[in-house]
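User: Predict the full complex structure for these chains.
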Amino acid sequence: MDKSGQQDKVCVIPARKGVAARVRKGQIVTVINTHGSQVVDTWAFCANDVTEFMSMEHSRGAMLKLNPKVGDTLRSNRRRPMLTVVEDTSGGVHDTLIAACDRYRYEQLGHAGHHDNCTDNLAAALSVLGLAPPETPSPLNLFMNIPVGEQGSISFEAPVSEPGSHVSLLAEMDIVVAFSACPQDLVPVNGAACVPTDAHYRIDDGAPRI
Amino acid sequence: MDKSGQQDKVCVIPARKGVAARVRKGQIVTVINTHGSQVVDTWAFCANDVTEFMSMEHSRGAMLKLNPKVGDTLRSNRRRPMLTVVEDTSGGVHDTLIAACDRYRYEQLGHAGHHDNCTDNLAAALSVLGLAPPETPSPLNLFMNIPVGEQGSISFEAPVSEPGSHVSLLAEMDIVVAFSACPQDLVPVNGAACVPTDAHYRIDDGAPRI
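Assistant: Here is the predicted structure of the two-chain assembly.
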């Protein structure tokens, strides 16, 4: 535990739900795929102006790759560095291509009535901090396995990460980070069993310690 | 010319600038790469509610591919069909991965002072119709050549389209379409000469006639 006693504890990202937290520049956010097959939609917003946020379409052009690897920096919609991948024990399979799920996604999949979804989870998570997302940015989908095939074909596959594996992200500015443990249970993006699970995160002042 | 005398004329997308037009459901928008090497950033907004707009991150998941081919439908951020590719003589190399250029892009490339950019062009084009974009959606970058290599690497290359080649898009709902003839002249996305040029578009009631 660090001096404050607040920052380096492990916190839950409840299955099917979202959570947000404030992170200071220089701190490291570690996202743990506790059960190995849970996709965690991840967003970052500038702490003092949520109209600046992590943008996949700006990040790809700066990284010159589809998905971030250790050493790569995710950028904002104003092209400023927001999060740098400093450690990844998950196999490095993530996604920047696919939108957050939403009520329309589940309607089209034939679900009747309410279904938890990452878009609403983002809004709910930020509201706890007294914030509202200016839009739903395309998320960094940690652990999500969307292979790109020949001719640019893509498919939705189960994660390849192992239970307890993690990704650590260095905050390049003061941010609000938000996570959603994706509630998708109709398509096997959260594993073949289609059962969303808890994931966890921690915020450390120093180097990742997991 | 059709009965109205208004709809099927060829209109300019001026080099480095943007333009927008209203398109009714069932009409066909044809975008012509007049000089062959001009990237045309393209957006679509629902005519009666601009908070619904064409979304690359929602479209990729529905198309199951990175870039649309003839027969593929681009979808909105509410996952409704907006535009279907009905003809493409350009070689089919387009991009859905890269953000519209903006003032920050040119600042980072070392340009001092004002530089035309696709983000401002979108806002200016919509303002002529009395509209404002609720955000800058990631555009459909017609004719833009961003090849995806092994391990998901990407690069910025010159277009492969021929002068006069075109893409025709069927409107699946009443929309406002917006174009920007990308003013990028520091990176060869608009051809090796780095000289942005005019492009053209037409709106037809029937089948494309070019």
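The interface with chain A takes residues 55-58, 60-61, 64-67, 77-80, 97-99, 102, 104-105, 108, 134-136, 138, 148, 151-156 of chain B (CB under 8 Å).
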